[in-house]
Amino acid sequence: MTLATHAIVGVASARLFSFNPVFAFFAAVASHFLIDAIPHWDYHLKSAKTNEEDPLQSDIVVNRDFIIDFGKMAFDAILGLALSILIFQPSDPLGIQTLIIGVVGGILPDPLQFVYYKFRHEPLISLQKFHYWIHTKQKIESWQMGVFLQALLVFVVVACSFIFL
Ligand SMILES: [Zn+2]
Q1: Residues with Cβ–ion distance below 5 A, ligand 1
Q2: Are 42 and 64 contacting, i.e. CB atoms less than 8 angstroms apart?
Q3: Does the reported pTM lie above 0.85?
């Protein structure tokens, strides 16, 4: 899913455990894998070389296209942070801490895929296998439908988060 979705859902998950930063972090990381399992749309990365036969051999090539892709991902992550601040409006240090833990934990598994592509060693190999295994194989092709469904998911998760907390 987009990093913005991962960030917001990560914060909603971290908030359940705001009393303990370690639990909060793991809840945010777990939320990443859980929602990746839902069929979804992802924007295309030109620098990504996907190997359908052996997914562990996929790669992101650092070339000219990567600069654009990096810009897309950075925008996506910053959008996630900005929307998280807007939605959750943390007003005390604990709220700010939980928000940062949620954004970082919610997004982290994706940059770790990039680290794996550049450094194919344990524990990254096992993590990549798990990420690939849990990630849906069902892609939503239409970006309009994809964006709509992710916005809906975010809405439902945020609504639950406000009902329970
Ligand atoms: Zn992911």
Answers
A1: 36, 110
A2: no
A3: yes
Each residue of 1-10: pLDDT tens digit?
Answer: 999 999 999 9
How many whole angstroms from 155 Cα to the centroid of ligand 1? 19
Buried (b) or exposed (e) across 135-161, using 16+ Cβ within 10 A? beeeebeeeeebeebbeebbeebbeeb
- Cβ neighbours for 134, distance < 8 A, ≥ 6 positions apart: 33, 34, 36, 37
Q: Which domain holds residue 87?
A: 3-164
Q: Is the pLDDT of residue 165 over 90?
A: no
Q: For residues 136 and 82, give the distance between their C-alpha atoms in angstroms, rounded to a whole number.
A: 27
Query: 89 C-alpha to center of ligand 1: Å?
Result: 26
Quote the number of domains for the chain.
Answer: 1
Give the model confidence (pLDDT) of 125-146 as tens digits: 999 999 999 999 999 999 999 9
Residue 20 CB neighbours (<10 A): 10
- Residue 66 C-alpha to ligand 1 middle, in angstroms? 18
